[in-house]
Please model this.
Amino acid sequence: MKNSRIHIPQPRSSFISIQCQECGTSRVVFSASSLKINCEKCNAILVENTGGTAKIHGTNTSRVD
Ligand SMILES: [Zn+2]
Model:
């Protein structure tokens, strides 16, 4: 019997953590989001969609698995 490995495909997009430049509040957002995402605390723009590409304004961006 052949030993087969199950391959789990990696999703093209993931959740990312973005820290607000203004107040430092971290927020987890979907990286492929087509929406404009504002900071919950100070309402600064964290993610903005510019023609299909998400532009990230925050700092300390990291992937969340
Ligand atoms: Zn903020």
Summary: The beta strands are 15-19, 26-30, 37-38, 45-50, 53-56, 59-64.
